[in-house]
Amino acid sequence: MSGFTTVLxxxxxxxxxxxxxxxxxxxxxxxxxxTSNKLMQARLVLQAIAIALIMLTLWLTGGGR
Length: 65
Description:
Residues 1-65 form the HIG1 domain. Keywords: Membrane, Transmembrane, Transmembrane helix. The chain has helices at 2-28, 33-61. The chain is mainly α. It has one domain (2-61). Helix 1 (2-28) runs antiparallel to helix 2 (33-61). The radius of gyration is 15 Å and the shape is elongated. The two termini are 17 Å apart.
């Protein structure tokens, strides 16, 4: 189970990076402020999910003890 949560956390962290890059490109090209706001909200939600998965993985593995 901890292997599954580790892989899932890595996937979500990759999604965070993709949303961040997309938001930066949107800002550089002078895109819509509404789009930038939606991307920021999506990034925050994905980061919260990633942190929760990392904490779950640590809990399942005993925190590296």
